[in-house]
Amino acid sequence: MAEEKRPLLSIVIPAHNEEARLPPSLEKIDDFLREQDFDAEVIVVENGSVDRTVEVAEEFARTHPYVRVITAAVRGKGLAVKVGMLEARGEYRFICDADLSMRIEELVYFLPPHVNGHDVIIATREGKNARRVGEPAYRHLIGRINNFIIKLTAVRGFEDTQCGFKMFNRRAAEDLFGVQQMTGIGFDIELLFIAKKRGYRIKEVQITWYFDADSRMRLVGDSLYLLVEIWQIRRNWLRGVYAKRETREPDRQPVV
Ligand SMILES: Nc1nc2c(ncn2[C@@H]2O[C@H](COP(=O)(O)OP(=O)(O)O)[C@@H](O)[C@H]2O)c(=O)[nH]1
Ligand SMILES: [Mg+2]
Fold it and tell me: How many CB atoms lie within 10 A of CB 217?
């Protein structure tokens, strides 16, 4: 049977209470995609919103057939990203925050020919070519403390694991999101943790990032919860939860 033609790019947008920020971002993505000569799809994944996120996304999708909207009841950015990435069909699959705090034009640095044998390409707001526009010093400091803890306890080698823009090629996406367990903000760390263990080639792209004070994250609550998730990631690893899917018996709980 002939395989269905895949788009080159899937853009997966987790969206929670984004009725205001999502439509202008979808417009900018649309403008960008019109300029490109490749096929793309956009998947908006909404869960737990109490506003009109689903309605505004569906309204946009009606006039833009490459846009799909998925909804779920249970909240969690990690959960939304997993669902969207596994639903995606693209050869390259990009996680993209709904606030588009990175200019969409920079997405080309996450695609060939800039990607050269890399499986995972993550945006970073650290390094001499990166810029953080408008971020208050205390927010950057909290980010640096989180990064220090992450490096100490979970994954080394990355100055910014938490930026909301990351590309996975199809092979890495199907593998990593297939075993992802974290439903909260620890999912980035989990994916990078497993990616490193698997020997995937990971590249960092330094971006210009625009701070937006409007946030769906709870500054203290989410930072503390991150510690719980890091502990869960390490425990999952020791219990073999992240074993490659083909070799794992379906849905068998590890014996404690
Ligand atoms: N689907 C979904 N998306 C979420 C959830 N929590 C956060 N997000 C999305 O994650 C992205 C990052 O959130 P944002 O508020 O910009 O966080 P910040 O930039 O870290 O302050 C946005 O696209 C949010 O809509 C959630 O529970 N479900
Ligand atoms: Mg943001």
Answer: 11
